[in-house]
Amino acid sequence: MRFSWPSPRHLFLAPLALIMAAPLIWMAITSIETPDQARQFPPVLIPHGIDWHNYTRAVDSAPFGAWYMNSIIVSLVVVVSNLVLCSLAAYAFARVRFFGSNVLFIALLATLMVPFQVILIPTFLIVRHMGLIDNVAALIFPNLVNAFGIFMLRQFFRTLPIELEEAARIDGCSRVGVLTKIVLPLSVPALSTLALIMLLWTWNDFLWPLVAINTEKHMTLQVGLSTFQGQHQTQWTVLMAGNVLALLPLVVAFLLTQRSFVRSIAASGVKG
Amino acid sequence: MRFLRSDHVTGWLLVLPATLVLLVFGLIPIGWSAVLSFQHNDLLSPPHWVGAANYQALRHDPVFRKSIHNTVVYTVLFVPISIAAALGVAVALNTRIRGISVYRTAVFVPVAVSTVATAIIFNWVFDPTYGIANWLLNELGISSQGFFQDPDQALYSIVAMTVWGWIGFDVIIYLAALQGIPQELLEAAAIDGAGRWATFRSVVLPLLSPATLFLVVWSTINALQLFDEIYNTTRGGPLQSTTVVVYYLWQQAFQFFQAGYGAAIAEVLLVAILVVTLLQFLVSRRAVHYTS
Amino acid sequence: MATVEFQGVTKRFGDVVAVDDLSLRIGDGEFMVLVGPSGCGKTTALRMVAGLEQPSAGDILIGDRVVNADSPGRRDIAMVFQNYALYPHMTVERNIGFGLRQRKMPRSEVQARVREVSALLGLEELLRRKPAQLSGGQRQRVAMGRALARHPQAFLLDEPLSNLDAKLRTQLRAELKKIHQMLPTTSIYVTHDQVEAMTLGDRIAVMSQGRIQQLGPPQEVYDRPTNLFVAGFIGNPPMNLLPAAARSGVLTSGDLQMPSPNSAEGEVILGVRPERLAAAGDADPRPGFDVTVDVVEPLGSEIMVHGSRVDSAPGDAAAEITARLAVGAMPAPGERLRLAFDAETAHVFDAATGAALRSS
């Protein structure tokens, strides 16, 4: 290997990486300190030994398990529902000529233009009318379909060569058969991108679950975490332990799948 | 049977489930929100019409005005800072030196941390008494600051926190766009005699304009809708210095049970977002270059 | 204007040697074509002159000055890329003027040069358009215009016509030649198309595996190829290569017998170009052989005949013969045809080394 000077970029990138990682590292360190160590200034940067009690106290004082279950259930159902229903609709808009399709498409797209906060109150009233307030189902029903998925999949379906579908129909496939046997298998990248994006949105959703759920054990992870903070306001060590418990899985999942994660985000934004 | 197999029926059957969901939870609420804004609704008793009274009240509401001011200040700071910083970081990361994946990961990870978790971390980092932010400032010779507890600093602290949380997303977009620039264009510019900075300004930057437009629109819309971070840090304080429009909306509807008033705020927000987005697209027609 | 020279230039990519000890001097105003199959090193050689690659060894000289350390922008060269590399966000006018503006040329002069170049290339109507609105041929003209406007010491062209359809290619080829005749700038042109090489080059360098196989004016390379590779590469369709044996002044290949044109002995390869073969009667005194006609392709101006030698075993690849015959009676598939050629048009190559054996 020929020797070459380390790039001067390191001088910029190393401190930057440190600044980005510092809050997370600091959180992790605090979560294994004793309360006395945490209440020191200047702060103790290297803790004297590991205290796991913060974690046990966090788990004992709040139903993290239930929060995880609720988040997982809601996320899974919403992701699957979107994959299925958005595919059906997107395929119809992309390939099927039917009466009123243009008007309908624009109307559905309009739901993307309006931020959720605008329909927060009416959605609350509708869900309350359905008797679903404080029920996990309240978090699922309004999110069964997100027009973003229809838009994204329609764009993607249109890039597939139509000759493949025409050949399949000549071979005797029905419209739905073409969708399931030809189009969807070829759309795995777009489908996984959509799944990833919906998963992120649903998992991190805060405002709607805050409004729709009141009982602690029905809360999703984000809202639960927020009430957890309310209960342990200045108990920093326990608070940080709870925070670690809440964000660890997603961060680990991110570290493991960084490539496809990054590709999904990049795919959603780069046009031109 | 012929009719049942026609494309029109097939098409409608395929879109029906999605249409139903979006009708009930998308289109109807959009209309209902407008209706609500003309009502007095306390979420308990039956609503009654009050005409334009909510909007009139909004015009004279000092807290609403403050919330608009806070939201605008936040947006005007957050959008350019996060995008410009992200561009610089993306250019620095667009290389293959050793350890680049470590650096990239460090920049991206905060995106995977939820808004709630981010808020909790920064409550601790910015703690005036024990937080490492003040420790760092002291090391640099600057006195300790109040951050979230100082009415003059709280909003700027929120800006810093959200830039930390979101810059990774912008960097990912810019990195992908940078890597999409054909190598030949950069070579042609080099042969044409353009130095590094001239190439960046005349070739790279224009070719990044679609990504820049996307990020400006996306960041602006998100900034105008700021809520989670406020709720989990300052709760709109101290002294309403961090009360933003959506926070005020939530307060009115779900704390003070003035759902009609909240709906009016929501309608104003909607118009603002539509106008701002439209303006950005109009400006983009001249400034954004798409390669075919 | 200046000379361009390679002095012992080698380029390695890891273990792969792309350019192997290349030495070549291109004269002032000369149009030099580097031609060869993909991977022969021609593009790498060109990019080293541009400064887009650094030689692993050896020197590149422009105008008798070693330029190894100079960045591309300071070598006063202009390049036309295969994919045009036009700045998509700039108009044609700004694309052409970009390099001039980078060199801080005064506005009036930039405008003058842009006008001069667009008149030359017929681009006046297109100046306000963006590359996306142009056809392939128009884009290539703009790319050439950008290079021409710079008045550089040397032009570097990297397969500029490969992305165009056949008709456009012929058209632009002629235009290129015309422009070079008007403004003879030192030019290095890289292509895999031997027709382009033959028609455009003052001299051509046939390259293979990083080395020059033969260097010379096109007609000379065509008439006197120095080895089998060059013989097979130049000329379309490729030369017919017949295994033969030379003994005591007589060349024998199957049923063919002819006096050996030189004093070589042993295994040789006899080369006869398709255009040198003619349909012959049995009484024709010239050397020849019989083929069974397989496929006949009428081209209008001539007839391409593919056949197999009668005296060879079936399935022997060396038995396939191609001949370009004058228009006349069309042979039919399955027919037996006698093909003859003038002895002095034949080439003889050493079977082991591939080198051409010429009469001493």
Report on this structure.
The complex is a heterotrimer of chains A (272), B (292) and C (360). By secondary structure, chain A is an all-alpha fold. Chain A contains 15 helices and no strands. In chain A, helix 4 (64-95) runs antiparallel to helix 13. Chain A is globular and about 75 Å long. The mean pLDDT of chain A is 89. With 292 residues, chain B is mostly helical. Chain B has 13 helices and two strands. Chain B has helices at residues 7-36, 53-59, 62-93, 100-112, 115-125, 132-139, 154-179, 183-191, 196-207, 209-224, 228-232, 245-255, 259-287; strands at residues 39-40, 48-49. In chain B, helix 1 (7-36) packs across helix 13 and helix 2 crosses helix 13 (259-287). Chain B is globular. Chain C has eight helices and 20 strands. Chains in contact: A-B, B-C. The interface between A and B is large, with 96 and 103 residues.
Topology:
The complex is a heterotrimer of chains A (272), B (292) and C (360).
Chain A: H1 9-31, H2 35-38, H3 53-61, H4 64-95, H5 101-113, H6 116-129, H7 137-140, H8 147-159, H9 162-170, H10 175-186, H11 188-204, H12 207-212, H13 221-231, H14 236-256, H15 258-269
Helix pairs in contact in A: 1-14, 3-14, 4-8, 4-11, 4-13, 9-10, 11-15, 13-14
Chain B: H1 7-36, E1 39-40, E2 48-49, H2 53-59, H3 62-93, H4 100-112, H5 115-125, H6 132-139, H7 154-179, H8 183-191, H9 196-207, H10 209-224, H11 228-232, H12 245-255, H13 259-287
Antiparallel strand pairs in B: 1-2
Helix pairs in contact in B: 1-13, 2-13, 3-7, 3-10, 4-7, 8-9, 10-13, 12-13
Chain C: E1 4-13, E2 16-26, E3 31-35, H1 42-50, E4 57-62, E5 65-66, E6 77-80, H2 92-102, H3 107-121, H4 136-149, E7 154-158, H5 166-182, E8 186-191, H6 194-200, E9 203-208, E10 211-216, H7 218-223, H8 228-233, E11 240-247, E12 250-253, E13 256-259, E14 266-272, E15 278-279, E16 288-298, E17 302-309, E18 320-326, E19 336-340, E20 347-350
Parallel strand pairs in C: 3-8, 3-9, 6-7, 7-8
Antiparallel strand pairs in C: 1-2, 1-4, 4-5, 9-10, 11-12, 11-14, 12-13, 14-20, 15-19, 16-17, 16-19, 17-18
Helix pairs in contact in C: 2-3, 2-4, 3-4
